[in-house]
Amino acid sequence: MTRTVYVNGDYLPETEAKVSIFDRGFLMADAVYEVTSVLGGKLIDFEGHAVRLKRSLDELDMAEPCTKDELLEIHRKLVELNDIDEGLVYLQVTRGSDGDRDFVFPSEDTKPTIVLFTQNKPGLADSAAAKVGAKIISIEDIRWGRRDIKTVQLLYPSMGKMMAKKAGADDAWMIEDGHVTEGTSNNAYFVKDGVIVTRPLSNDILHGITRKAVLRMAEEAQLKVEERLFTIDEAKAADEAFTTSASAFVMPVVEIDGVALGDGTPGPIAKRLREIYLEESIKAAV
Ligand code: PDD
Fold it and tell me: Which of the listed residues 180, 245, 250, 277 should we mutate to test ligand 1's pocket, taking the one with most ligand atoms within 8 A of CB?
């Protein structure tokens, strides 16, 4: 089925959507994005994603393409037009184009480019992969130093994912100065003796919207959370581990660098947090 996508004010068949070859998103990765999940035809944590988008734009002195209310309307309309029950809405805003390539930013009156499209993913909540759990490898983190800004510079995370696939695993966690930063497209956690450990927020990692919700829900469920730096060896010696992201919610991790965690199946805390997260988020969806 041909999707209906959104480009700069227009809803169009995907085959008719166009962006300039001079767009800075294309030439310079001068662009930010958000991925919002859809469950039961409704948006999960739209507010969190809208707030983070504004922050990413502000950090890069990029203009806002539209208001938050307009953004919500576009999301909802695309979900409806594409008949999405479970899936994702991808949003990208770029600094636009003034019709040539130049390292200097274009003039202030250059309009940002805004593109949104849906991805239909039936079975996203009742995921087979989450029942098995993910195998991960560790790789060096060689990304730039502003990972808190959700830019489209995703070449290294994509390469990390490919390194994992080549090694017979599902994903990679990245390591900088001896400590785990995050997964290629998710935040990373391990659990030892009932305590959930994850890296604290800084410019080194993306401030995950799912992370924020899951940590709040963990505390409400009387689970202990420690936000601190941790090594891959600590994670390998853990009882269980997991990742969080808008596209996979809470994903149990069952193996790190070939070492099975616990009995090698999804751990009880990861499973419980996944259930709580899905239940609470579906209730609050808009
Ligand atoms: N990725 N860390 C990185 C590097 C990410 O790319 C993501 C999300 C996260 C989790 O953030 P959130 O909970 O807000 O989704 C952490 C999205 C899903 C993606 O690139 O598809």
Answer: 245
Q: What is the pTM assigned to this prediction? A: 0.97
Catalytic residue among 150, 161, 166, 212: 150
Task: Judge if 196 and 262 occupy the same domain.
Answer: yes
Average pLDDT, the chain: 98
188 lies in the same domain as 114: no
| DSSP states of 71-98 | HHHHHHHHHHHTT-SSEEEEEEEE----
CATH of the domain at 24: 3.30.470.10
* Per-residue pLDDT tens over the stretch 23-50: 999 999 999 999 999 999 999 999 999 9
Q: How many domains does the chain have?
A: 2
Per-residue pLDDT band for 1 (boundaries 50, 70, 90) equals: confident
**Could you tell me the residue range of the domain that residue 70 belongs to?**
4-120
**Per 3-state DSSP, what percentage of the chain is helix, strand, and coil (rounded to 5)?**
30, 30, 40
